[in-house]
# Entry
Amino acid sequence: MFDVEPLRDTTFGAVVRGIKVAEVDEPTFRALYDTWLKYALLIFPDQHLERDQQIAFARRFGPLEFEMTAISNVRSDGTVRAEKDNDDVMKILKGNMGWHHDSTYMPVQAKGAVFSAEEVPTVGGRTGFADMRAAYDALDAAMRARIEGLNAFHSLHYSQGRVGHQSKKSDGEYSGYGFHDGPVPLRPLVKTHPETGRKSLLAGRHAHNIPGLVQEDSDRLLKELIDFACQPPRIYHHDWTPGDAVVWDNRCLMHQATPWDMTQRRIMWHSRIAGDPASESAIAA
# Structure
């Protein structure tokens, strides 16, 4: 049906060969979905997805939070953004280099994402992933007891503010997605996966201000959890080749962008799979 090669020296992830994801039939997709739940990250080389193909493939995992957006230092007119200009899009690209889950700052956290590579730089620009299931499993009993029942607020205003991005101002090129004025979502530090039942950590750069802790203690605990989680064998950084596509489970993996020479073009395409409100909604504060 298809070949699955687990990633080496990691607790998660697999390379899938022998299929074109734009053409899989329903029985094959069901098997692929089960494989995704097991490995949380699937990598598909040599796909070269067209826009409508990527959207259609992402939609098979569930309704979409949004169909597709470019994650890129290349403008729509083909020119390359100057890193020194540090515009809103550049600030988002830099912010994304911190470990995070997608859309924890929205009322409903994303289920996952399909991500594909069109153009990649010669050096750098990898995407890192971290297995928060294995991170939870590796915690000692004292830390598990300490964090069980604790929550944290999640905000893009907060996380982008830490890289100097004043979200109330815009240069007109960034849509402002995620900079909403609604309630700041509150989410547990320990999350149970709605389909597998496995527990995982939920932290990342958007998390802040754990209720019941003074800010210094909250900041220290969140940093400690991220630093602990994002260590071998719980991490993998993907070196992109044009045509690669991946799908990851945002409910149990964090991810991050990594630096590259921004005089070189990097064009990636992101389709975000919406979370189920029954399991991915924020806690009522």
Q: What stands out?
A: The radius of gyration is 18 Å. The domain at 3-280 is CATH 3.60.130.10 (Double-stranded beta-helix). The chain has eight helices and 15 strands. The longest strand covers residues 64-72.
